[in-house]
Amino acid sequence: MASCRGLIADGSIDSGMVPKVDAALEALQAGVKKVHIVDGRMAHSVLLEIYSDTGVGTEIVL
């Protein structure tokens, strides 16, 4: 979590991604084991993220 906060602080994570990462970190703090952030505009993005070897989004694991 500290590394995500550092990336926000140094501007590597910015604009619309900040609230998504903040929500992901809140979920992790509440006990969720891992979070996936995917582009909802991409067809089948959730399935591709979870079931493909390469994924199409960002996975944050505690």
Report on the structure:
With 62 residues, the protein is an alpha+beta fold. The protein has one domain (2-61). The protein is 45% helix and 13% strand. The chain has three helices and two strands; from the N terminus they run H-H-E-H-E. The protein has a two-stranded antiparallel sheet with strand order 1-2. The mean pLDDT is 95.
In short:
With 62 residues, the protein is of the alpha+beta class. The chain has 3 helices and 2 strands, in the order ααβαβ.
Features:
alpha+beta
Number of helices: 3
Helical content, roughly? 40-55%
Strand content: 5-15%
| Termini gap | 7 Å
SS-based class? alpha+beta
Q: How many strand units?
A: 2
What summary fits the major beta sheet? 2 strands, antiparallel
Please state the average pLDDT score.
95
Topology of this protein?
Layout: H1 2-9, H2 17-29, E1 34-37, H3 45-51, E2 58-61
Antiparallel strand pairs: 1-2
